[in-house]
Amino acid sequence: MSRIALVLTLWLAAAALAACGSGGSATTTYRSSLSASNGEELEHDADRSAEGVDGLSVCPLLPTRTVEKVVGVSGLRAERNDSLDLSICRYARGAVNVRILLDGAADATRRYYNQLSEAQQKFNPIPDLRPHDVRHVGDDSTYGGTGAFWTRGRAQLVAFSADRIARVTVHVPAQSDARRKAEAARLAKLIFARAPAERDGS
Fold first, then answer.
1. What residue range is the signal peptide (predicted)?
2. Could you tell me where the DSSP H helices lie in the chain?
3. Of 50, 117, 127, 140, whose Cβ has the fewest other Cβ atoms within 10 Å?
């Protein structure tokens, strides 16, 4: 074999080995093109800032007489418990308990959707704890398709509107579930109407 032929043969062999090595490297350095994010983007989740509830306390927004009229019970006493992002007012007399929580912390859309999804996943097999959609109370255009849900066993309605979550519990022993739900829905609509989240910055 001539010297030129020998050099050519060795060069071709080296090139072949390099190609094989390159193929192995491509396999070991493969990276998935899938997104690394585990979060689901929510269509209506554009605003993640905290609206807060500063100056929007539930007790003065819903005076005792207003709550008494809605639930049909007199003699209730209001107890206030407020913080920066939460305002809670409890109206009680004996076994009667009405509790309204207004949540203005950040990321309300996602947190409401997560609460609804978790309730559906965990409690659908349990009739008393199964969440039931309630329309025309909160923002029904939010992700999940309903702006409020009711839990019979807790006598509680959770509703979302304008970057805030309202959690309303109505326990009046003599009342039916349907009446409690209707009263909780009425109170949620009142608190949303009287404590709008949208501010003009003035």
1. 1-18
2. 3-28, 58-61, 64-71, 108-123, 177-194
3. 127
